[in-house]
Model the fold of this input.
Amino acid sequence: MDIFAELVTLGREARDRAYAPYSGFAVGAALRTKSGGVYSGSNVENASYGMTICAERVAIFNAVSAGEREFEALAVVSEELAPPCGACRQVLAEFGLNTKVIIADLGDSREVHTVRDLLPTAFTPTSLPRGCSESEGAS
Done:
């Protein structure tokens, strides 16, 4: 099984664990890091809609909290081909514009893009003033 197919399979499994009682729009994600680790996530909705979090960010935050910082590919799986939202694109851009993003549905359809394709004018750490240290830029 190729890496993209494996990530889509894991994204589908994560989608099954989504908590989406308000929208009914379940999403799963699976992220592969350059070190070979795989982290999944599902969307978690909240009655206070602003507290909802996307599957993509759950997977990314799981990886980051495990010490990972370099990503290879992220699969996003939903009922239809649905790309990551703007917030998820921005979070992905923080860790690399060349990360592959596989957008898949529950059938055999999938598209592959890079974060750069999805967010061509991303605000990245290099957008910050030269005098800003890494720790200042992270806050």
Observations:
- The CA atoms of residues 71 and 115 lie 11 Å apart.
- The helical segments are 3-15, 55-65, 86-94, 115-118, 134-137.
